[in-house]
Amino acid sequence: MNCPHGASSTTKEQHKHTALGYQTFRCSACCCTFNERTGTFFNFLEDPTDIVLLVVPWR
Asked: N or C: which end of the chain has fewer CB within 10 A?
């Protein structure tokens, strides 16, 4: 996974997960930590992405 902050491809998976269970990564170049939702619209939602994608079309 590429770093959303520096666009570096030298990232490593961390053993830590977010509160919603998403895998975290660390960039070797800029030392930032991020997950798969970083930099997307879903990053600031407090619900899992799959639940949001089910509810929005019904609304």
From this structure: C
Q: pLDDT under 50 in the chain at which residues?
A: none
> What tokens appear for 27 in the block?
């960039």
Give the residue among 30, 13, 16, 10 at the shortest CA–CA distance from 2. Answer: 10
Distances (CA, A) of 56 to 25, 32, 40, 49: 28, 31, 16, 11
The dihedrals phi and psi of 11, each to the nearest 5 degrees, come to: -115, 155
Alpha helices in 1-59 (DSSP H): 49-58
d(CA 29, CA 49) in angstroms, rounded, equals 28
Residue 50 token pair: 């799959």
